[in-house]
Amino acid sequence: MTTLSATSPLAEGVITPTYDRARIKTRIVHLGFGAFHRAHQGVYADRLAAEHGSDWGYCEVNLIGGEKQIADIQHQDLLYSVSEMADAGWSCRVVGTVKRAMHQSVDGIGAILDAMAQPDIAIVSITVTEKGYCHHPASGKLNQQHPLIQHDLAHPDEPQSVAGVIVAALKLRRERGLPAFSVMSCDNMPENGHVTRNVVLELAALQDAGLAAWIEGNSSFPSTMVDRIVPAVTLETLAKIQTLLGVNDPAGVACEPFCQWVVEDNFVQGRPAWEKVGAELVKDVLPYEEMKLRMLNGSHSFLAYLGYLAGYQHISDCMQDPHFVAAARQLMIAEQAPTLRTLDVDLAAYADSLIARYRNTALKHRTWQIAMDGTQKLPQRWLDAIRWHLNRGDSFDYLALGVAGWMRFVGGVDEQGQAIEVSDPLLDQLQQRVAQSAQGEERVHALLSLQAVFGDDLPASPRFIERVLQAYQTLLTHGARQTVALWPTAG
Ligand code: NAI
Ligand code: CS2
Fold this sequence. Notes:
- The chain is α/β, with parallel strands linked by helices.
- The protein has 2 domains: 21-282, 3-Layer(aba) Sandwich (Rossmann fold), CATH 3.40.50.720; 287-486, N-(1-d-carboxylethyl)-l-norvaline Dehydrogenase, domain 2 (Orthogonal Bundle).
- 48% of the residues lie in helices and 12% in strands.
- It contains 21 helices and 11 strands.
- The strands form 3 sheets. A 5-stranded parallel β-sheet has the order 5-2-1-6-7, sandwiched between helices. A 3-stranded mixed β-sheet has the order 4-3-9, with helices on both faces.
- A hairpin with a 2-residue loop joins strand 3 and strand 4.
- D-mannonic acid is lined by residues 188, 227-229, 296-297, 300, 369-370, 377.
- The site of D-mannonic acid has 10 residues, from helix 11 and helix 15.
């Protein structure tokens, strides 16, 4: 089977770049050429070029991991495909707006910094997962002890961290007399622009106060709310893509049809007219981010931990269990929705639409994938809402059950006594606490002592501890499936 290229014949119905690709300019450097970026920002750029004559194109960069994705797209004329998967059928488009692809381990960091310091570059965007920001998830501040940050402080001109690379690139632009670019995070964090600004400015200030002041005065860090479910690509997905496309595409991704992007309109060197292809450009993204993070990602994580423990491999499998559907809905409507700032959105309808999206059996979104990196996700998905309820004396039964589910998951042994492969940047700290605590109450206290996740306040809250403990004990006694069915009265 031939591989996707500018000249390969494609199956009928595939949307291809009919615009002049030579006209597209490299105006955005993107850090994190993963599945999500390809299916989200990549498609907005392609649609803008195809439907509105935009010339905004990408230089795609992977710093850590993802060597294969960069090599793959280089071998296929910088083209890749995005397939939308619905129970009713699939559709497929080839994205043509990538101009260049680089990997730190192949091209070297010097070449990447040089690419970021070209005059045409107006935006550096990011999707590097929450852990890529090297911050303390509970506070949003730079983790100065992080090994990558320690490295970058010692070698500022050969940085390894995302923040270090941005600081070094901006330093180079300043030296070359070029204007700064805007830095746009598209990762799932509340105020992702502020988190990015914090880590970049803090790291710059530790190196050179003058540089930090220049960045603060010349760059901007717009926040974004991003939404499109893009599961990790499997061999099965690639086979399906091949059937749709008519050629092989190892750089292809598949995702749900739904897509949403809310962007803070704050760019120092211009931006693509994303609003022409459905993005919302607003002054304040925070209410949208919180809504999405607490309703969607909060229920996703709940389904991920409890579902994994109950033996459900995919989110759509959880949706076959009416008790899981009811629990996810309760969590969203009764415990997350009340904590949100007012938006002109019907939250009950939003919850229904999320459940409908989760039911998509074509997606095969693994509970294990969403369960990854929990220490980086819990604060914004559950813990801020729990604090809201604690302040008001309200109940938060499902959020507490979620926390208990996470604790059971990171314990590393499932309900059948099989090992769980826990993937988390704080794995050492998790394993140490698990190894040094007896199963039950002691384990709960040991995990609550993770200050980077729970802060100082939650481990000192008797109500929080009591509710999580009760949920944890119930999970131990009844197992996840039955606990979800009986909750909140099972304890
Ligand atoms: P992925 O695993 O396909 O890609 C991860 C990307 O992050 C790769 O490009 C990798 O090189 C980079 N990366 C990982 N750790 C890094 C580090 N320490 N420093 C620098 N780069 C690093 O994951 P995917 O699906 O692309 O998701 C990435 C992020 O996008 C998510 O964590 C989330 O914040 C956001 N997102 C994902 C959605 C999805 O459904 N997949 C939807 C909405 C947002
Ligand atoms: C998921 C998200 O992996 C996860 O943690 O909750 O990536 C989710 O699929 C997206 O945010 C949907 O937009």
